[in-house]
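name: query_chain
kind: protein
chains: 1
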Amino acid sequence: MTHILQYSPRQFRDLLILETIHHVPVFRAYQKYARKVGEDAMSYQDYEFWYMRFLRGDYSMDYDRSQDPKTRSLMDMPLEIMEQIAGGLNIREKMRLRKVFGSLRTFIDTTPSNFIKILVRFESERTRLWLDDRNQKLDLRRSDRVAEFEHFSVLYDSKATWSMLEELKDDDCLVRVHRHRDKIVPKAIHWEMAMYNMFFALKNQKQVLEEISIENKSLGNFEEFETRLKCLKRKIRVKKVKIITHYSNEESMILPYIDPVTIEELEIEMKDWKVELKSEEDNKERIRKIMETEVWKKAENRTLHCHSKIDFPFELLMDCPKFNLRLEHSARERTTILTSQVQQCVQLSCPSVPWEWIMCLLEREFDAIEINSFFYHIPIPNSQQYFEIMLHSRDIKITRVEN
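structure:
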């Protein structure tokens, strides 16, 4: 018996009678009671028991609850029923439910997840995370990945991004969700909260993810992400992986933890605006290490998108099967673009190459067949293949095609 019944039964009885007479909802009545007396005076379960007795008109305080049969809890339900309950919840509902008590948290954490897409972007003062479980769809006439990400993702903001919000303290985190009330989490770090929720989704994959996209825009301690990847029981099973780098090394922290068995598409976009490799040798070594990974070798569709002004090491292409290459800058002699080394690629895209130059090159140095002013074919000697060349407003695309 709680101490309020031991030492002040009449006081408790008087308080409870008033609440039941006015039919105050039991949980609201308990909140008022806890504010007056203190939460440690009585648990909610005990309060609810006495409240229901008084509501029925039984005001006796002599009842001994120790003789009651043991009550059943939520965790006493059959496992099949619990799985059905958890299976019908979305990510936010699961995250709230697991906070109820320890046993329920363990159950939720061991329940297979049903996510199809995970997109995350880390910044120095903000993290944006979208865990897509098919329950959210944007009503657009066309598919718009950027709009979906901005619309459905959860924002974890630090004080630096909301300096005018007085109730947000320096060590707090503001959690913002579209069409949901903003929530301030005290003494929390934005990227830690995002990583916690992301790895909750990765713990028990029910199925192979359709896509995972990771961008480290300006988070200096991104090494913590790799530390958490190491703690996963198995590698991430996913079909498509996109990594956007800003520090010239993020792919080395992620690719070793991707399951090469399930990979179909891999894209690495090297923006590297925070830390850029200055040496051609360092850049070449980085590309070589990417091409040596099992994930790169197993992927059917591979794309490198390079923003660096350092010359791309085309000589590495001789040892690599087909893949897609997009160069934002090309400082090397432009004839390199269509040499035999590059002919191992499925698609090459170079925005800096002007039309006039490429058209003259096609006519002068290659046996190109002009289909129209924007479309060429180049036969590949001793094979049944040819290069399909399309000239666009900002770039040229070269695709290897079977006859």
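note: The chain has a mean pLDDT of 78.
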